[in-house]
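Schema walk-through. Below, the input block comes first and the output block second. Nothing else is stored per chain. Lengths vary across the set, and this one has 94 residues.
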Amino acid sequence: MTGKPKASDEGSYTHGELAEMYNVSPRILHRWIEPILDKVGKRVGHYYNRRQVEVIMDHCGVPPALKHLHEPQQLSTDGQDQLEKDSSETKTKL
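--- output ---
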């Protein structure tokens, strides 16, 4: 498993890309989704479409590779202060 998972513009992924996002082998991912294959449906070519990926994620959870997109980031007061400082420094340089 090398590189980053690639998403097409439609949000479709290959089985291998999904496995990589979950940090498991394609074989393990297949075992996870085997109970819901009737809900997932047949892939078009090598890709699961957006609806199929949503069904898989509802069953397996959000993959670690995408958790940062689904969880709001909590900033401490120090973190917020640093963001404001960085922002003001950038403005003064312009």
